[in-house]
Every structure is written in structure tokens, then in C-alpha cells.
Amino acid sequence: MIKTDVLIIGGGPAGVISAITARKNYPSTKITLVRNKKVGVIPCGIPYIFYRLKSVDQDILPDEPLKKNEINLIIDEAKEIDFSSKKVVLKEEEIFYDKLILATGSKPSLLPIPGIEKEGVWLIKKDLDYLKKLKEAVMSSKDIVIIGGGFIGVEIAEDLSFFQNLNIAIVERSSHCLGGSFDEEFAKEIEKKLFSKGVKIFTNATVKEIKGEKKVEAVVLEDGKEIKADLVIVSVGARPDVDLAKKAGIRIGDYGGIWVDEYMRTSVPDVFAVGDCAETRDFFTGRHIPIMLASTATHEARIAGTNVYEMKILKKNKGTLASFCTFVGDRIFGVTGLTEKRALEGKFDFVVGESTCPDHHPASLPDTQKLKLKLIFSKASGRLLGAQLMGSQRCAEMVNLLGVLIQEEMTIYDLDFLQISTHPLITPAPTIYPVIVAAQQALSKIKR
Ligand SMILES: Cc1cc2nc3c(=O)[nH]c(=O)nc-3n(C[C@H](O)[C@H](O)[C@H](O)COP(=O)(O)OP(=O)(O)OC[C@H]3O[C@@H](n4cnc5c(N)ncnc54)[C@H](O)[C@@H]3O)c2cc1C
Q: Whose Cα sits closest to atom 5 in ligand 1?
């Protein structure tokens, strides 16, 4: 029997950051983390195990930060929680806790497609041995079909496109790959980039059947089209892993994740939930939304780790902006806050400002690329509500800057007077700095 002050179940980004944050805030407590995998993987690195990372072992989540922070790591599986005695039953032993943080993550979603059980059909699991087998199978394949054009499907397709001998196809149910994350003009650019790398894309397409004797031979679409396949990757999203929480009787929310309040507290005293297993709130509406991102997971983990013993009132969850960026071809695509599509669906009264400019100045400098930015502002208050951009590497940090501007409730007027640093080799020109130009364009629409 083990006793600990803080017990964390789950060793993904949310579990690790909860533990480290709790250590920083409560230095004298005993902190224990239980993980059911001997070795963890970095989930965001999975799409790159095929080409860019030379082996799956290069995507291992290091345990050093846990050791360095004196966090007791136990490799075992949590099977049951008894809240009355504050005890978690593992396969091998029992642990008594004072505070419990659930960070059990998510599992890949399945589709009820006939033939999904066939040999050659793979999911994207955060499991080192499984991924090693998947990589081996990919290396001996020729025709790969990816079902699902979300960010995981797109990133895998892009990485695989470096292998000249592979035929890659994506099947996406909606009208565009990444159409849920970006507005159409950005999603179309993503598709163009994939296409230029030889990836075939089937949109507005639903899979009817995965065909083959024992092993997969083709993916059949509803319209009868057949796409030749000797390997299929299903990446149609993830669902919160709440088996343990459900069994213990914790309240589950509308989207199937563990219900939490603004401090990541569950319906049970002294029990928190963070990351993919917990329900996420939207920054603007406060409503629960099905967003699963490592950036959101670690944000929630920092809130739980900070408040696990005492309420440090300023560290509460304002909700997620779902800030996210991806790399397709030679371009970064980033988004934070509302897209125009989401603003329309949510009935926001908004105005759009856009700008396109070279990312160096003068534009004749080598490696200059076009940077496109789209900002969404509230018409009445002028508050920045969302940003999307595409361009070179510098977009990745620019999307984070824009996220901060939204988080800090900055307005179109603040952006008009933004103080910036610029340099010819690194940024757009100060005379046409994209954030300012897009804000001014939106402002002119408001004034009109
Ligand atoms: C291929 C891929 C690419 C991604 N790319 C990005 C990206 O670029 N940017 C981004 O922001 N997000 C990305 N994500 C999403 C991101 O990985 C998740 O949001 C993140 O992993 C959530 O972290 P988590 O700790 O909540 O859950 P998980 O990473 O799922 O970790 C859960 C942990 O709990 C353990 N566990 C579960 N049940 C038990 C139990 N009963 N007992 C003990 N241990 C248990 C698991 O073994 C695991 O260690 C990607 C996801 C995938 C799959």
C-alpha cells in the first residue's frame, strides 16, 4: 500500500505538466504519477515517425522531467477509484491519495465501416510498439488510404508524401480537409499543397466499405468509387478515455468527457480532470466543445497543478482558443479563436480584416514568401475574436502572439497602434505589418 499527497493518473502531456506544476507550487508534497505504458510517446510527433523521424524511438516522451522534479513514476494501470477511502486500485497495488488528478487522455475514434477489422487497417494509437508495427507495415506498402482529413490525417499524408514509391489518398467526409479548423480559402490552400506533393484528395466522400479477402485491397466510397489500398489509416478523431472515471461514478459531460469547472475540479471533491479526458470550454461562450489539443491539455494541467491545494484565484480556466498550427508542404497554417465560419454559426456580429504581404522586406530578398492573415473582430466592441494565417515558419509564433491579443481582450484600436519589431531578413515591413494592416482594413469597414 502506497500513500501519496497528489496522485496523477496518466503520463501524457496533461499528466506530466500537472505533476510538474504541482511540484513547483507545493514543493514539499509527495507526488506520484501512474502511467499504463512503460514508455510514453510524444503524440504530436506521431505523424512524423514515417519520414522525418528516422525511427519511432526518436518520438519517445522523456521521463527526465519527472525524475528532475522528484515525481514518483509508477508503471501500472489504474483499475478502480474508491472516493470514500480516497484510494486508487492499480493492477499490482493500491494507492491512497489526498488529491487526485485524472489525465487519462483519449483513444482514437472508430467508424462502423464494414471491413474495418481487416488486416492492413490501422488506427493512430499513442503506443510505441503499435506505432513501430505501423511504420513497418507502411514501409512495405504501396497504396495507402487515409480516412479522415483532419490535422492528423493531413500531417501523416504530408510526411508520407516524401516517399516517392507510395500512392497516398485522403478521404474526407466534409467539403475540405481541415475544413473544421480553417475557413475555406485556407483549407483550399492546404489541399493545394497536399496535391502538389502528390496526395490525392477525395472530399464530400463517405467510406462505404473496406474491401478485401482477409487483407485490405480497396476502400469503396458511397458513390461507388474504389480506391486501391494495401494499407488504410483511420484518423477520424478521438474520444475521451473516461472508462475509469465512468466506473467510479464521476459526472460525464455533454461531449463524453469528464465534467469540470473553471478550476478543472470534477463533480467529486479533491478530484480534478485535465487534458483530453476532460471537457473543454470555449473561450467565447463558456460552452463545452470537443477540442483535443496538447496546447489546451497542458494549459488545463497548469491550472489544476496550481490550484490542487489552494485556490490561486487568478489561475482559472477562461476556456480554449483552440490555438493550433500545422505544416503542409512548405507552409505553416495557423489558427486561434474564431474562424469566419464559426463566427457565422455562433451568430457573432463581426467584421473581417485581411492582409497579404511579403514576409521579408524588400520582397526581392531570397526565400521571401507571401504571408496571408485574416482577423475577425467583434463589430460592437472591436475586440479581436480570431485569427488565421498562412506563410513561412514565422507564422507559428505569430499565431501565438495573436492568441495572446485575444486572451487579453485587445481591440481593433489596440491593434491599429501595435508596437512591433521588424527586420528585413526576419519580418514583413513595418509599413505594411500584416496585423496592423488587417486591423485597419476591418476598422475602415466599421467606420463606413
Ligand atoms: C497523431 C497526433 C498528432 C497530434 N498533434 C498535435 C499537435 O500538433 N498540436 C496539438 O496541440 N495537439 C496535437 N495532438 C493532440 C494531443 O496529442 C492531445 O491533445 C494530447 O496528447 C492530450 O494529452 P493528455 O495527456 O490529455 O492525453 P494522452 O496524451 O492521451 O495521455 C493519456 C495518458 O494516460 C495513460 N492512461 C490512460 N488510462 C490509464 C489508466 N487507467 N492507468 C494509467 N495510465 C493511464 C496513457 O497511457 C497516457 O500516458 C495530436 C494527437 C495525435 C494523436
A: 44
184: which strand partners? none
Residue 314 has pLDDT above 80, yes or no: no
> Which residue ranges have their beta carbon within 6 Å of ligand 1?
9-15, 34-37, 40, 43-44, 46-47, 77-78, 103-106, 124, 126, 152, 241, 244, 275-276, 292-295, 297
DSSP states along 2-20: EE-SEEEE--SHHHHHHHH
Amino acid at 204: N
Taking CA atoms, 194 is separated from 230, 277, 434, in Å, by 21, 31, 26
Ligand 1 mean position to 302 CA, how many Å?
Answer: 16
- Report how far residue 412's alpha carbon sits from residue 372's, in angstroms, rounded to the nearest whole number: 18
Strand 231-234 relative to strand 99-102: parallel, antiparallel, unpaired? unpaired
Those residues with Cβ within 8 angstroms of residue 21's Cβ, 6 or more apart along the chain or in another chain: 301, 302, 304, 305, 306
Ligand 1: residue whose CA is nearest its atom 45: 10
Distances in Å between the alpha carbon of 338 and those of 333, 348, 385, 400? 15, 10, 6, 14
Gap from CA of 142 to ligand 1 centroid (Å): 29
Structure confidence by residue, pLDDT tens digits, 281-310: 999 998 888 899 999 999 999 999 999 999
pLDDT at 288: 87
Mean pLDDT of the residues in the chain: 96
Pairing assessment for the beta strands 6-9 and 167-171 based on DSSP bridges: unpaired
Predicted confidence (pLDDT) per residue in 44-68, tens digit: 999 999 999 989 999 999 999 999 9
267 vs 270: CA distance, rounded Å: 9
* C-alpha 107 – ligand 1 centre gap (Å): 8
- The 8-class DSSP code of residue 326 comes to E
Is 170 within 8 Å of 199 (Cβ atoms)?
yes
pTM for this entry: 0.95
Residue nearest to atom 53 of ligand 1 (CA): 43
Please report, for residues 134, 155, 156, 200, 410, the alpha-carbon distance to residue 137 in angstroms, rounded to integers and kept in the order given: 5, 18, 14, 20, 49
Distance from Cα 208 to the centre of ligand 1, integer Å: 29
Q: Which of 33, 35, 233 to mutate to test the pocket of ligand 1 (most atoms within 8 A of CB)?
A: 35
| 305 touches 7 (CB < 8 A) | no
